[in-house]
Amino acid sequence: MATELAVFPQQFDDPARLKGSHTPQPRTRAAKDSLKILDPASKKLSCLEAQRIASVLEECIRKTELSTLLPYCLHSLDRFGVVLGAELTGALREHRRLGENLQTLLERQEPRGGEMGALQQAIRSSLRNVLRLFQANPVACQTLRAEKGKRDPAGQELVRGLTELRGILFDKLLTGPAEDHDRAHYVQEVALQHQKNMVVVSALEADVEAAIQDRDREISKKNEVIRQLKSSLHQTEKISDDLLKKTRQETDKQLQSDQKASEGKCSKLQQEITQLRSQLNNLITENCESELALRKRKYKVETEIENWIQKYDADMGEKQVELEQLHEVYTEEQGELKELEEHFAVLNQEYSQVMEERRLAREKKEQEERELVLMIRAATRIQALWKGYKVRKMIKSKKKGKKGKGKKGKGKKGKK
Length: 416
Known about the structure:
There is one protein chain. The chain is an all-alpha fold. It contains 10 helices and no strands. Helix 4 runs antiparallel to helix 9 (153-174) and helix 6 (86-107) runs antiparallel to helix 7. It is extended, with a radius of gyration of 72 Å.
């Protein structure tokens, strides 16, 4: 047992693996909170005895899975020969031989009990040997487990039952006495609540039954109204059929009279069609002659247009040549004009310089002449002023000379 725990320790660390599909999954948060009490407080097996029990059940499930797939493996032994190996293949063939012997023995009418017991014991020993060899060959074990879809329904049901048993056993091993008491109390409360709910459900069912009876009465009333409406509809359909027959008779009479009138109109229209056909033939003849004349005229016009087009092409060719020649002359004259414009620009610049120099010289000469005139005028004025000054000075000097002579004469007389 300790060896089995050492070989498969990882199988007891995952509670979901040991529970399988036994624990229900609540859909709403309220249901999840209310069912928390049903979940075990511990998620791992802490007791060594519990681990050993779980290990035994796990080993039983593993061997059951392999045992239920052995019929398919024995039937397809050639397919798995490479994966299984020589030793395991030989053991499987021996096990198949023992199974065939047991089948043959069972088909006898009076099988012997001693022989039957020895053969069954041999098959049990062979099965233990095969399972031991599978445990020593993990690849073969995994390959065979991958073919779980080939398992027969009885074996599938056995494996499913053992898996559910594993989940239930794991819940029991994880649950302590206190948790069992809480669970029992919770289940009792749920049962009481269920009884109350059943009372409410009974009352609601009575209400539903009363509502169903009311509905049935209402439906019966509506069915009576429908029956009356159907009867009225039937009478209306009968009256409608009579009216339809009468209308059909009147329509037939009117149709016969209209048919006679139509035949007279058809004969008259036939005569008109004959006349119109003759007129159409005459018009077609006239139109054919007119079309022929128009075709001739069209051909003549097309010929003239073609001639005009050819003449236009010839004239345009000549004009194009003349235009090219004129363009060449124009290009040459443009070159000459450009050269003359450049030369004129140079001459214009020189002319502008010369005219500017002449203008400056003329302005300078005029300025000099104006200055000369001003100088002459100023000199004339200065000379006039100087002459006036000289005259005035000379007059003053003469006046002073006369006064001096008079004073000198007076002095001499006084001295005498």
